[in-house]
Amino acid sequence: MASLDTRKKLVTAALIAPAALWLFFFLVLPFIAMVVFSFGERGAAGGYQPGFTLEHYANLGARSMAYVNTLTLAPIGSLLCLLIAYPAAYYLAVKSNPNHRLLLVSLVIIPFWTSLLVRTYAWMYILGSRGIPNLLDMIGIENVRLLNTPGAVLLGIVYGYLPLMIMPIYVSLEKLDRRLLEASADLGAKPISTFFSVTLPLSLPGVMTGVALVTILLLGEYLIPQLLGGGKVFFLGNALVDLFLQSRNWPFGSAIAVTLVLIVVIVLMIAMRIAWRVSGTRQVDLV
């Protein structure tokens, strides 16, 4: 019996080992290096030189605008994605014709077939002086600036990340037992009451998965603020690119990166806690 247990443990270890090694070398070790760099000093020609100082953490306020923009626009962008994604996912999973459902889901995924860079450049044209502002100018509404604003960044965020919000909610709603909805109706509950007492609580794990996924990705977003914000709407991702590739202040960049990772972990823990409290079970999908 012991030998059988030993073989099972060895098989389990062999199956887990490739993923564990991958995570160790490409996630844990880089993070350790980043933490070490964050306590070091900037070299005379840039980069990193060994040392120990807390100066870079004390100087995080120098990039306060990047923190404010990220911690403000990322949650707002996630909320906007949620407000649009939930009705869309609900229609796909509950109301749409089953014969057309695969086609509709495919239409949600199709934007991912095109590079985000290309799609963002398209929005730069639409929001630029030759796009919507030009059309508004033709009808007498002058001096409208859409590009290089927080609104343009939020629009790009919603457009780019909406499918990532729709799919987890859709999967959660598709698994919903329709008999629960019928039972609620048989007991005299109105559709709105059924939604808030049955549908929404049971789909909340999918909602939290989508919110966590989109928010975590937005916290490190670089491309959309850079192109649609025009360097005027800075995210932490833009600050990291500036510090590592332009000013070559690796220790300060590492300190910001460490705080970003901590923010991501906090967001993930909050999402898991909410999903666990509401559903009554641990939502491992968020991990």
Automatic annotation (TrEMBL):
The keyword Transport applies. InterPro entries: MetI-like (IPR000515), MetI-like_sf (IPR035906). The keyword Cell membrane applies. GO terms for cellular component: plasma membrane. It is a multi-pass membrane protein. The chain crosses the membrane at residues 12-39, 73-93, 102-126, 152-173, 194-219, 250-272. It is found in: Cell membrane. It comes from the Bacteria. Belongs to the binding-protein-dependent transport system permease family. CysTW subfamily. This is ABC transporter permease. It comes from Rhizobium daejeonense.
